[in-house]
Amino acid sequence: MLRAAVRVLAEEGYRGMSFEAVARAAAVGRPATYRRYRDRADLAAAAIAAIGGDVTAPIDTGDTRADLTEFVTRISDAMPHAGIPLLGTVFAERERHPELLARFRERVAEPRRALASALLERGMDRGDVRSDLDVEAAVDHLVGAVFARHITGLPVAPGWAEQTVLTRWRGISC
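-> structure tokens emitted (174 positions)
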């Protein structure tokens, strides 16, 4: 159902996305969509969140820098599937449908930020990361690097995530 929702969202935009259109595309009854999602914004955000797999699955390699590299890799790998156009749809509709942006933040942005924050805080507990680190700003730097790379259309070469984390690591590590 979520793959169908992504297709409908990509093809029709948020305006053209309805429970009926998604149910039709998924070959399920409309009640199936109503049972799982509280409203159209919830369905759209769930579809975007599901793109690229379980990006927010726990990460614990035993090494904070490796954990952060895995996080950046996951987010970056999901970006071509999520597509900047789908994110653009969320932001383009923010005035008419603020509930869509709210659900996007709830289902997509906040869980990813929470994972990155947890990785950094665990690094602080391990003594790998400075105890005075502004965790929120560090998360902004990591996530922002991924968005900047994909928005500009620059290639994500092998080793890009490692280099991105290493560049920031110099400022956050002990």
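DSSP finds nine helices and no strands in the chain.
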